[in-house]
Amino acid sequence: MPPSLILPPALPDAARWLSDCLARFDPGQQAGDIPDRHHDADARPAAVLVPLVWRPDGPGVLLTRRTEGLRHHAGQISFPGGKREPGDVDAVACALREAQEEIALAPHLVRLVGELPPYVTITGFSVTPVVGLLLPPAGLVPQPGEVAEIFELPLDRVLDVRQYERHTIERDGRLRHYLSLSYGDHFVWGATAAMLRILACAVTGR
What we know:
Elements: H1 11-24, E1 44-53, E2 60-66, E3 77-78, E4 81-83, H2 91-103, E5 111-115, E6 119-120, E7 125-134, E8 147-154, H3 155-158, E9 164-171, E10 174-183, E11 186-189, H4 191-204
Parallel strand pairs: 1-7
Antiparallel strand pairs: 1-2, 1-4, 2-3, 2-8, 5-7, 6-7, 9-10, 10-11
């Protein structure tokens, strides 16, 4: 995290500060190391919740690790979230519903502060990251068969742009790029790492 950046310790102040950061963020000015996939009109709408746990000893970003037996994204680290369902009136409703289903996070515990620009994934989803704050404890329970682990990534590591690595792979005869971020035994990569990097850019301007 940039040494000049001091995070507000109290949740109400943090909510106002983050809301201002997200409102001022210009997606056109995001950092050049973030893989840019142009918006596809055929992309399916989805949403994730980016839950920031505002702890006195340092905020953390809540993430999940998928179970190994899933057909898609097995073992990967992700935000709570998924595709928009017919009953979801907007991205916020989708993100809160998925978070309640996946980690038993009650919607009333989340203080919403804004959204990041939609991120188009390689699998054809246009994902809207919905940012919210919460205080511990939140009584979280992983959904059996889908979520293997719930953990927190320190926010100061997320905001430190030096922690991200850019990778290049060849897929279907084309060179593709993705970001990664490591923390202990956890390897965050792909869309989740990209959305964390966009959050860092929105907050730090880098």
